[in-house]
Structure formats: structure tokens, C-alpha cells
Design goal:
The complex is a heterodimer of chains A (about 140) and B (about 230). Chain A has about 140 residues and is mostly beta strands. Chain A is built from 1 helix and 9 strands, in the order H-E-E-E-E-E-E-E-E-E. A 5-stranded antiparallel β-sheet of chain A has the order 3-2-5-6-7, with no helix packed on it. Chain A has a 4-stranded mixed β-sheet with strand order 4-1-9-8, with no helix packed on it. In chain A, strand 6 and strand 7 (about 105-115) form a beta hairpin. Chain B is mainly beta and about 230 residues long. Chain B has helices at about 1-20, 40-45; strands at about 30-35, 50-55, 55-60, 65-80, 85-100, 110-130, 140-160, 165-175, 190, 195, 210-225. In chain B, strands 1-3-4-5-6-7-8-11 form an 8-stranded antiparallel barrel. In chain B, strands 9-10 form a two-stranded antiparallel ribbon. The longest helix of chain B is centred in the N-terminal third of the chain and has 21 residues, at about 1-20. Chain B is elongated. The chains are: A mainly beta (about 140), B mainly beta (about 230).
Amino acid sequence: MIVLLSTVGVGCGPYCEGVKSEPTVRLEVDMDLGIERVYALKLDKNGQESPGEFIAIGDYSDTELPIDLNSDATTYVFERNGVTDLLELVYTKSVGLESKACGFTLALEGMSVGGRTTFNNVIVAKEFKTYLITIE
Amino acid sequence: MKRPILAFVICLMISLSGWSQSDSTVVSNSHFFISLELLKPLSLIMDGSSYVIEPEITYQRKKLLWKLSAGHSSIDKQVYREMKYSSKGYFIKVGMGMELEYVRKSSSQNSILSGVNFIFSSNDENGIVDFSGDYFGDYSHQMKQHNNSRGAEMYFTHRTLISEKVFFSLGVRIAYVANSHQQEEFPVYYTSGFGVVNILGNQEQNYNNQLSGGLSIKLGYRFKLRKL
């Protein structure tokens, strides 16, 4: 019965290229870097930055980083062994009416590494609806 | 689009000249009719959101009609699933028509009118779509676009004189936006003077159908002119 409901649930939803809420990008970090905590910098209305909540780091350092839609760049802070590193992701937003079933959806385009980044080797790759960020 | 309209107008004029010459039962030579559309401002009274003000003046000489109307539209509603939509615009309609027949020839209280109006309009469309955000908070995406539209409408109206000078009319119309109004932000939803323009077509892929139509209920006043 559980299997049947699961199958029906997967089949009913419309296929949409874009997302309908705050998007995330997938992060893979080399375990040897020993990342302990990650958080993003939030911008207030005056453009002042403040640290956001800690972002859960998944198994094998597989982490979902939220994207700030109120800005064209999001900066993340990585803490490890008393060292702080920054990762800045720059992007553009594209909003459009995808279909009657999907309504308006959002897609991120042209994501790249920003100038505030302190990591030496960051790879940004498009992956289906989102991006894969690899820090080596 | 221009050629069919031109052909229709020529045919209409030829028909009108024939009607005018052959009909000897015309009660009065000429009248002015001023009227106001009642159906379109109704939602303003109901919920205060959307309305169209469309005053119209018609000059009728024998069976020939000349129409002029200028109006303002303000639409505020949710469309395309989740978009908060608003539109404001102005339009002018200029047209001609004919009185097709008297339903009751003895009293001439009822008449059926048909004709074509050319429509010129300008309207701004605004849309807001909200995206919820758990980490950074919600994001509102705002879109704006402007439409300059021209086209035509064809109408059939049943007009009833409810007193010597007051009349009531019920009509149907079909309108077509002749120029292309494809927009990048979102498909045009409402065009001033024409109406909702995405009622037909494949709405899965293209909402930008240029056809519109609707009903109209008008209340008006007739000026019975003396011979010039």
C-alpha cells in the first residue's frame, strides 16, 4: 500500500523546469578541508551583512546552499580549524510563465564564482535544475 | 488583417446605402444616443477591484450609425495561477454600423444594431509573483510591460426604448487585436478596450491569443433631433 501511494504521488505532479521557492545549489567539499560550520551572509535593507543560521552539512560533505533571491550574489562563510574562508556565488535570476500547470517558475542562470571567494579551487557546474559547486 | 476589415466596411457601406434608400418606414431622421456600460463597472461596486468606464455617443441618421467612445480600464486580480495582476489603460473606439431591422415595426421600440468599431488603446500591465524563502526570506518578483494596441470589434446589439428618451441595450461583441503584442515578461492578459485576450487558444504554451469578446449592458438617453 505504501509503495502504491508513493508511485501515485510521484506520477501526479507536473514536470517543471524552474523552481517555485528559494532555490538551492548542491555543494561538495573535499573532506580533507575539515569544514566544521557553514553559514550565509544575509543583507538587510541598508546593505549591511549579518551572519545567517548555520547550514546543515550532509553526509560526505554533501550540502544544500540556499540562494538569496533578493540579491545577485550570495556569500557563504566556511569555518574550519580556526580558519575562515569565503565562497561568493554570482548569478542572474530568470522568472517566467512556464506552463499552465507549473505557473511562474524561477531559474538561476550564469552562475559563477565571485571575487570575494578565498578558496583556491572552486568548480561550478550546471546540474539539471540546479548547480553543483565543488570545492577542492 | 487590414484587408478583411476594409472589405467589411465597404460591404457595410454598400448595404447601408441600399437600406437607407429602400426603407420608407423610418420614424425619425436623426438621433443622438449617449449611454454608459453597466456591466463593466459592476465589479467596482461588488469588491472595489476592477472596473471599466466606457461612455459612448452614437449618432444615428436613418439606419446608419456613427459611434464614438472613450474609456478607462483598471483591472486588479490574480491571474496565471499565482500572479498578482493589475492593468490600467485608456482607449478610444470609433465606428459605424447599421440598424438591421425593427423587431416591432409598429412602435419601433426595439431595434437590432450591428457594426464595427476600430479600437486604439494604451495600457500598462504589472505583475508580482512571490517566491517563499526559508533562509533568506520571501522574494517578490515584479514585472512591468506596456501595450499599444489597435484592432477592431464587431457587435450585435438589441436596443429597447423603455421610454421616449431612455433606452436599454443588450449586446454581444467579438474583438481582435490586429497588431502583435507579444511581451517578454508575461503573456498579455488584458488589453484596454478589447478585454481579456487569452480566452482561446492553447493556454499550455501560448496565452497570447489576440481574440476577445463579451457581453454589454447599456443604459442611455436619446436626443430626438429636429430636421436640419
